[in-house]
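lol forgot to send this yesterday, sorry. struct tokens for the thing we talked abt
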């Protein structure tokens, strides 16, 4: 559990930290302290709670953008001048590091993965299959001895003809201008149809990825495909974008890896002050445990197996009659 939690709670942890870092108070209706404290109780990236944190972050960043004259400028001590600055917001992407629920069996260098093994991402396999290809095994062909799920990975393909699509609709974005990126890699000499993209349908914009150099390997490629100055589709007080990649190889390896998002400027004509006030008074604040006792309590060991005799560090899962579920890590 200790190995898994840092990645599968990363979105909640990073969101809570970003909210706390904006030193601008909101109205008491926002219940900021209550939500930040509740963030510490989660052991997975529960998306219903993530939505509450996203709304709170938007309210805070709107207040910042409304009150600061140059939020996208910073003072450079070396040049003694103001320089352009961005606000990193990759935590608005679910699972930007592509952690996976797949497991590579002991003694194997890779394993086939399901399209549902990368939470947050919609994957469509058109030819062949995908694999997680863990950093400890790919390239050196070192066999895995004890590879557990929820580690930093990538959506990969191995030898043969493979084609697949990976995308995510990133919603509840603060209204602003953005820069987004995602890593695409093919083995050198095999540029047969890999590209990153932004948006869908007629509005889709593709990257100009042309493949790695002859003799290079996709495993070594960490150069992202970048999309600049993005204005998301705006609906009320939020925006949304679709970020993805298409992979097609006929030989060698390929991968889709780490995605990033940065806020680079204000959106013209948007009333940040009004939006901050509206969001601060409308955030769903139902984070408290329901009254009464749970109707079911289960315990799981750190190996993920249910136990009737919990000892030491244990995962406690409580369920109430209205469907509310509370998951906590306790010491028995």
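and heres what i got for the seq, position by position
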């Amino acid at each position: 559990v200790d190995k898994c939690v840092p990645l599968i709670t990363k979105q909640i942890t990073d969101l809570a930290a970003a909210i706390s870092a904006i030193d601008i108070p909101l109205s008491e209706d926002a219940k900021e302290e209550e939500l930040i404290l509740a963030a510490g109780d989660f052991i997975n990236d529960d998306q219903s709670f993530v939505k509450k944190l996203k709304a709170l972050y938007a309210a805070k960043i709107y207040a910042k953008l409304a009150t600061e004259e140059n939020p996208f400028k910073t003072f450079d001590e070396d040049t003694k001048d103001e320089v352009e600055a961005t606000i990193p917001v990759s935590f608005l992407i679910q699972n930007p590091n592509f952690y996976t629920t797949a497991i590579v069996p002991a003694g194997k260098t890779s394993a086939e993965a399901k399209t549902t093994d990368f939470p947050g991402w919609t994957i469509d396999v058109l030819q062949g299959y995908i694999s997680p290809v863990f950093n400890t095994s790919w390239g050196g062909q070192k066999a895995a001895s004890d590879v557990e799920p929820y580690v930093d990975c990538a959506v990969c393909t191995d030898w043969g003809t493979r084609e697949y699509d990976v995308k995510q609709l990133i919603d509840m974005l603060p209204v602003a201008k953005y820069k987004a990126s995602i890593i695409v890699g093919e083995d050198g000499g095999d540029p047969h149809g890999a590209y990153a993209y932004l948006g869908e349908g007629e509005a889709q914009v593709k990257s100009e990825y042309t493949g790695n150099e002859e003799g290079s390997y996709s495993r070594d490629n960490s150069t992202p495909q970048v999309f600049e100055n993005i204005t998301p589709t705006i609906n009320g007080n939020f925006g949304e974008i679709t970020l993805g990649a298409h992979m097609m190889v006929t030989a060698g390896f390929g991968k889709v890896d780490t995605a990033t998002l940065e806020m680079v400027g204000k959106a013209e004509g948007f009333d940040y002050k009004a939006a901050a006030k509206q969001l601060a008074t409308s955030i769903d604040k139902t984070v408290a445990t329901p009254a009464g006792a749970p109707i079911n309590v289960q315990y799981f060991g750190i190996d993920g197996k249910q136990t009737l005799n919990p000892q030491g560090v244990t995962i406690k899962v409580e369920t109430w009659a209205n469907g509310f579920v509370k998951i906590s890590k306790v010491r028995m």
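Residues 47-67 form the longest helix (21 residues). anyway ping me if u want another try
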